[in-house]
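The records we work with from here on pair a chain with its fold. These numbers are not coordinates but entries in a learned vocabulary of local backbone shapes. To see the layout at work, look at the sequence and tokens printed below.

. . .
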Amino acid sequence: MSSKKYAAPLHLEVSSSRLLLILLTGLHLLVIVLLFLMPLSLGLSAVSMVFVLFSAACTVLYHAKKSLASSIVGLIWDIEDEWFLLQKNGEKILVALDGNSFVHPWFAVLNFRQKNKYLSRSVILLSDNIDKNDFRRLRVRLKVTNFKAELGAG
């Protein structure tokens, strides 16, 4: 079956996520604790700590808080089977869904690739940053179109 059977495009609004904020902050704090437990020199520990804190700030602002201009705040899957990412700054980017995306009934990590770009863009969908009905529609449409990534049970 093809998504062309759908008469309307699928519009998904992606908002900030408190769950993702807690998860990302907790994971980065765990790394900081592990840095203290490792037998590293003070200089190496300090440099590593700076990188971990920078990573925490970037991932929280981009994925959880949606505060950066390049943060993805919406997805469109149109009837021509094309995907678009909507950034907070208003830019609309044509992308292709990667086969290494992961979809589960509780969450999804969708990886997208732009034409002629090496790095992919990821969108993390959790129960508190997307409408539950829209998420269900996305999962069903991915199954119906024989999406090749790992599909979780359900």
